[in-house]
Design brief:
The complex is a heterodimer. By secondary structure, chain A is α/β, with parallel strands linked by helices. Chain A has a single domain, classed as Alpha-Beta Barrel (TIM Barrel). Helix content of chain A is 41%, strand content 13%. Chain A is built from 11 helices and 9 strands. Chain A starts with a helix and ends with a helix. The model of chain A has no long low-confidence stretch (mean pLDDT 95). The two termini of chain B are 24 Å apart. Chain B has one domain (26-54, 64-298): Alpha-Beta Barrel (TIM Barrel). Chain B contains 10 helices and 9 strands. By secondary structure, chain B is α/β, with parallel strands linked by helices. Chain B is globular and about 55 Å long. In chain B, 50% of the residues are buried. The longest helix of chain B is centred in the first third of the chain and has 25 residues, at 69-93. In chain B, strand 6 (194-196) and strand 7 form a beta hairpin. Chains A and B meet through helix 7 and helix 8 of A and helix 2 of B.
Chain lengths: 288, 302
């Protein structure tokens, strides 16, 4: 379906405001993404471009750059979230359960929500059997953790015109792939509707650091500006602000302090809470 | 230097002769104003069955996905949410609005158009769809259809045109003049309005900007959000200084797109520009139509 068949245009001005529980005016949605980069394929992102521009295979520099995230960066971030009492949505390639079981177990030990992010880091357009991959991802995570994921993020947020129909068929209740609003919206599918929670590419470390080459403090500066705008608006209607971190980016030493400051400062503000995707979804379902 | 003439239309050098700004007869604005600022909001509809005009997030390991849901939604956020933030700034500082809008966007976002019509914003032609004018099958039909759509929603034909990505063919200026447009803004060639020859009557070009433009700054150059404010201040200071030194008016443009400056972390830097500039007594805030009328009356003839 064309996206407009799934969701009509609606200006935010004029919508009846949703209602958060008493004392809450804004929700921070922390998302931590864990990926598996298969060395037999081109690397998903590169920090160092190949000499003469010709991609190398195997790509040791960029594969090890990502691997740092799983060996070291993740543990920094985990400690930060734990200290701040934050339970992020952990969106993971299902293959991470096979390759990095200790990492997934560490998330489960703290009761964090696991969200399906494909099998490995391959876009949906390059996936021949989408239904198969979706089911397989959910099965692997369910088998490892004992809980079937309720939410999905496509690798690279990619979708084809019918991905949502396959997701709904597989029992997914919410996605983060549609960054088109500050509020949750309900998308039509050929099965049950699926909720799109407000994710974004603004406070997102791949966009900022890997693509836009911003300085290390950009997470903090940009998150503060984003927050100030939304917080002021939250006097009139609830706002949800996602913050997306990848261990190989936000978990590196020169960035980590700025990330930590960001969460510390934002969550110290009145009426601001950190919820995971399942919790935001359940709240949204109480709104008529 | 002689360049081969194109098969249709004209070389840009044949439309406008070189002229140093410092040698021109001084331009005068009413009430001893030094310069004019015009503030353009660009609204587009991106067809999800085509390649996205811009992207913020490339897919892992590259490629051109179809559809490109992440980037389509990132742009659509501007129409649903971002635009209303920018509108608030126009309202708060009483800036005459200039809505540079694709024909298809007029149909897709009626509430947005209504809000602008109610506020008497000027509407400018911006292609029927968001596509390079060189890739449009029938340019004249596109230009004509844009005017019709805008006339339907505003009650008047648009006087100005600002093409998607400022793209033109060899004969865009000719067609615009023939189709009844009074001014174009694709030629970021000067700090003053200038006349362009066409095969019919001359058409005016009003200075637009690739410098104080959020697409260039944020999407291509990847600057921090506050660069939009800082650069506008630097640009303003210099243009004002130039205008004062020669006692000759200048025109400065500011260009925004709801999906860029309307993002929560950027909106305040758009607002800050007007907090600083709106109070200045010798700076006029006009729309394109007002600039065109002033220049046609008091500036050099074509």
């Amino acid at each position: 379906m064309h996206p407009r068949e799934r969701l009509s245009y609606s200006p935010i001005e004029g919508r009846a405001p949703l209602k958060l529980p008493k004392g809450v005016r804004m929700v921070i949605w922390p998302v931590l993404a864990l990926e598996e980069w298969d060395m037999s394929r081109p690397m998903a992102r590169m920090v160092i471009s190949p000499p003469q521009g010709r991609p190398q295979q195997p790509d040791h520099p960029n594969w090890t750059w990502h691997e740092y995230g799983m060996r070291v960066g993740f543990w920094r971030l985990r400690r930060m979230y734990e200290t701040l009492g934050i339970a992020p949505t952990v969106t993971l390639n299902a293959r991470v359960c096979e390759t990095y079981p200790a990492v997934v177990k560490a998330c489960m030990d703290l009761g964090w929500e696991l969200n399906a992010h494909g099998y490995d880091q391959v876009p949906m357009h390059k996936t021949e059997d989408q239904r198969g991959v979706i089911m397989r991802s959910m099965d692997i995570i369910e088998k490892f953790s004992g809980k079937r994921p309720r939410g999905w993020f496509g690798p690279g947020l990619t979708q084809t015109f019918d991905t949502l129909d396959h997701l709904s068929e597989a029992g997914i209740e919410y996605i983060g792939d549609w960054v088109l609003d500050d509020e949750p919206v309900t998308l039509k599918t050929t099965h049950k509707p699926v909720v799109a929670l407000p994710y974004n590419f603004e406070i997102h470390d791949i966009v900022m650091m890997a693509l836009q080459h911003q300085m290390s403090d950009a997470m903090h500066i940009r998150a503060r500006d984003q927050f100030d705008c939304l917080y002021a608006e939250s006097a009139e209607r609830p706002k949800i602000m996602a913050i997306a971190c990848h261990p190989y980016l936000s978990g590196v030493p020169h960035r980590f302090g700025h990330v930590q400051r960001t969460f510390t400062e934002l969550l110290a503000r009145d009426g601001v809470v950190a919820w995971d995707g399942a919790r935001i979804l359940d709240w949204y379902k109480t709104q008529a | 230097m002689h360049y081969a003439k194109p098969p249709v239309g004209m070389l840009p050098n044949d439309r406008i002769a070189y002229s140093p700004i410092v040698n021109r007869k001084p331009l005068k604005l009413p009430n001893k104003a030094r310069m004019v600022v015009w503030t353009v909001t660009n609204v587009e509809e991106w067809d999800p069955t085509q390649t996205m005009p811009r992207t913020v997030l490339t897919p892992p390991a590259g490629g051109s996905p179809m559809p490109d849901i992440p980037n389509w939604c990132w742009h659509e956020y501007g129409n649903r949410v971002g635009f209303w933030r920018l509108l608030q700034v126009y309202d708060d500082f009483k800036i005459p609005g200039v809505m540079n809008v694709n024909g298809v966007a007029v149909e897709a976002f009626p509430e947005m158009m209504k809000a602008c019509v109610q506020r008497k914003w000027e509407f400018v032609g911006h292609g029927y769809t968001q596509r390079n004018m060189q890739k449009v099958e029938n340019e004249r039909a596109d230009i004509r259809k844009s005017a019709e759509v805008l006339e339907r929603v505003t009650g008047k034909r648009p006087r100005g045109w600002l093409g998607p990505g400022l793209t033109e063919t060899w004969e865009t200026a000719d067609i615009l003049a023939e189709e009844g447009y009074d001014y174009v803004a694709d030629w970021v060639i000067d700090d003053q309005p200038v006349w362009l020859k066409t095969r019919a009557r001359p058409i005016l070009n009003i200075p637009y900007t690739q410098e104080c433009n959020d697409v260039a700054m944020m999407l291509i150059q990847h600057h921090k959000a506050n660069e939009f404010y800082e650069r506008a201040m630097d640009q303003f200071e210099q243009i004002y200084k130039d205008a004062k030194a020669l006692d000759s008016a200048r025109v400065m443009a500011i260009s925004v797109h709801p999906y860029i400056m309307g993002a929560p972390h950027r909106a305040k830097y758009f607002r800050m520009i007007f907090e600083k500039l709106r109070k200045k007594k010798d700076v006029l805030f006009w729309n394109g139509s007002q600039i065109a009328d002033w220049f046609m009356k008091t500036g050099p003839k074509a």
